[in-house]
Design goal:
The chain has helices spanning 2-13, 15-22, 26-57, 103-112, 152-162, 182-197, 207-213; strands at residues 72-76, 92-97, 117-123, 137-143, 163-174, 218-225, 235-242. It is of the alpha/beta class. The longest helix is centred in the first third of the chain and has 32 residues, at 26-57.
Length: 243
């Protein structure tokens, strides 16, 4: 009852956004202006908070270089390219996103990270990577994206399809907090308003369960807490899985 009461209070505070959504105005404004702007700001802070974890996560990327000597990497939901700085020199990157409105930030990240080879940019959702041939990439990266895809299991099936045997899937995602924690209490309260404001981002997904049930031959997964003061998405999972 308390969760429903507080949830209603937050929905009341966000009533102008709900009204704009009802009128069909909020979604295009969010995708074109608000979300790209706020994501670029958040990405800078987030990279500072997770720099050590990301450096450690991507440290072994060169181990998945193909026998040809190339490391072909596909990133799902590239956004403004906040992960580029952590990829090894010479890596061939294919960027994908459902939104073209990140192009300004993405172009800036590309110019700042010229140690990489950028092959192409695809407008594609994680659930449909049909433009990418099966078994054609050595690594797939997905950070802070599985919280907002329409279907996690379909996305993971596509990841497995495009990876070559022995390739790896790298992830860093915020997830549902421990159900007995105050953080989870607030996640449940904020869930509908947060999802509306932040372009479909879900606070309470237990993504580690989807990864455990996917057909990876090896899964290295760790639960961590990212120090994000006053934010409901501190609980994260990080790691990689091998096809």
């Amino acid at each position: 009852a308390s969760i429903l009461l507080f949830r209603a209070c937050f929905m009341l505070l966000a009533m102008p956004i709900y009204l704009l959504s009802f009128l069909g105005i909020w979604e295009p404004f969010c995708k074109k202006i608000f979300f790209p702007f706020i994501l670029e700001k958040i990405a800078a802070v987030y990279n500072r908070k997770t720099k050590r974890q990301k450096q450690e996560l991507f440290r072994n990327l060169p181990e998945f270089t193909s026998p040809s000597g190339e490391l072909k990497l596909l990133e799902i939901g590239t956004g403004c390219g906040s992960n580029f700085q952590f990829y090894p020199p010479g890596c061939k990157v294919t960027c994908t996103d459902i939104d073209l409105h990140f192009q300004k930030g993405l172009s800036q990240s590309m110019s700042q990270n010229q140690h990489l080879h950028y092959e192409r940019f695809l407008v594609a959702a994680g659930e449909d990577l049909s433009q990418v041939p099966s078994g054609s990439v050595d690594a797939v990266v997905c950070t802070l994206v599985l919280c907002s895809v329409r279907d996690i299991n379909s996305t993971l099936k596509e990841v497995l399809r495009v990876l070559r045997p022995g390739g790896a899937f790298y992830f860093l995602e915020h997830v549902a907090a421990d159900h007995s924690s105050w953080n989870y209490f607030w996640q449940q309260i904020l869930y509908p308003t947060w999802k509306l404001v932040f372009a479909g981002c879900c606070l309470t997904r237990e993504i580690w369960k989807n990864l455990e049930q996917a057909n990876f031959s090896e899964l290295k997964l760790q639960h961590i807490s990212v120090p994000l003061p006053w934010m409901p998405n501190k609980s994260h999972i990080i790691g990689y899985a091998v096809k």
